[in-house]
Amino acid sequence: MSERSERIEAKLREALDASEIQVVDESHLHAGHAGAREGGGHFRLSVVSKRFEGLSRIAAQRLIYEILAEEMKSEIHALSITARAPDAPGG
User: Fold this and answer.
1) What is the pLDDT of residue 28?
2) Distance (Å, rounded) from C-alpha 62 to C-alpha 2?
3) CA-to-CA distance for 20 and 26, rounded, in angstroms?
4) Residue whose C-alpha is closest to residue 2's, from 46, 44, 60, 35
5) Could you give the CA distance from residue 45 to residue 59 in angstroms, rounded to a whole number?
6) How far apart are CA 68 and CA 76, in angstroms?
7) Domains in the chain, start-ordered, CATH in brackets?
8) How far is CA 7 from the centre of its chain?
9) Higher pLDDT residue, 29 or 45?
10) pLDDT digits (tens, 9 = 90+) for 48-69
11) Which residues make beta-bridge pairs with 78?
12) Do the Cβ atoms of 55 and 71 come closer than 8 Å?
């Protein structure tokens, strides 16, 4: 796991009290892409947290973007997000 991935995971785990988090750095798949050239990484996230209970998929994703707002300015170029509550389908 990359250092950036570890920081992203730690920040999400703390903010969301998440029971499961998977952060996959897919930056190597986007070599030459404009965002990659500028230093921003491409990440795939899977997050399970009670904080998502009662939220729509879009609201849960917005919450993640709010938590990672500072990282979105330079460290993260693109995110693919799967966010769900513990009792939601898919887990």
Assistant:
1) 66
2) 24
3) 19
4) 44
5) 15
6) 9
7) 3-84 (3.30.300.90)
8) 11
9) 45
10) 999 999 999 999 999 999 999 9
11) 42
12) no
The separation between CA 80 and the C-alpha centre of its own chain, rounded to angstroms, equals 7
pLDDT at 34: 55
Q: Which two tokens stand for residue 70?
A: 């500072």
pLDDT digits (tens, 9 = 90+) for 8-30: 999 999 999 999 999 998 886 65
Q: DSSP for the chain, please give it.
A: --HHHHHHHHHHHHHHT-SEEEEEE-GGGGTT-HHHHTT-EEEEEEEE-GGGTT--HHHHHHHHHHHTHHHHTTTEEEEEEEEE-TTSTT-
Angstrom distance (rounded) from CA 19 to CA 59 = 19
Q: What region does 4 belong to: left with phi over 0, alpha with psi -120 to 50, or beta?
A: alpha
CA distances in angstroms from 75 to 23, 34, 35, 47, 87, listed in the order given: 14, 13, 10, 19, 32
